[in-house]
């Protein structure tokens, strides 16, 4: 018996309904998918040389900031000490002279710490950072030539000694003069004498530290 026209579409429809549908591509899982090529290329750009150069820029910026702060401390110390001396002369209260050693001790120690950090940055660049970059780049000589060149000046030793003399005068001799003036004044009291002797001992330690780091 020949199939009727009405049965043919039904058979075709049944066959179409039983056929499997095409599968959709699986969703990409973020935790397990491979890294894109662009990200991999960006990761390859982070080399040791780039990291060391970035470190050099940062520590040089820190060194520059510390140099400016250190130099301003010297001027501020002289200005503050002069203000105390003027107030002492105007008021006639010689015990105010004991404030000068305190100012010089606090600002002098801050000055010395910043000066040591400035020198430490230079040593690190010359001894660690520069040689490592020269090794990576294959450069025949020093990478950061200025860090070595400015230390070869024949007059550098004289300048360092003069600077040490200025530092010692500002942070040691000047407050000691104020202490001597206080000891010779009629305002001497037992408690104030103990304070002045303590300041003298602290100033001696500070002066020794200045001499210790003078060659850095």
CA-to-CA gap between the ends?
Answer: 113 Å
What gross morphology would you assign?
Answer: elongated
Rg for CA atoms: 38 Å
Could you give the order of the helices and strands? Answer: HHHHHHH
Average pLDDT metric: 81
Low-confidence blocks of residues: 1-19, 37-43
**Major beta-sheet overview:** none
Please tally the helical runs, counting DSSP H or I stretches of 4 or more residues.
Answer: 7
**Could you tell me the strand content as a percent range?**
under 5%
Q: Roughly how much helix do the residues carry, as a percent range? A: over 70%
Structural class: mainly alpha
Number of strands: 0
Explain this structure.
The structure is a single chain. The protein is mainly alpha-helical. It is built from 7 helices and no strands. Helix 4 (99-137) packs antiparallel against helix 6. The longest helix has 44 residues, at 48-91. It starts with 6 loop residues before the first helix and ends with a helix.
Write the layout of secondary structure elements.
Layout (H helix, E strand, L loop, with lengths): L6 H12 L18 H9 L2 H44 L7 H39 L8 H4 L6 H28 L6 H23 L4
Short characterization:
The chain is mostly helical and 216 residues long. It has helices at residues 7-18, 37-45, 48-91, 99-137, 146-149, 156-183, 190-212.
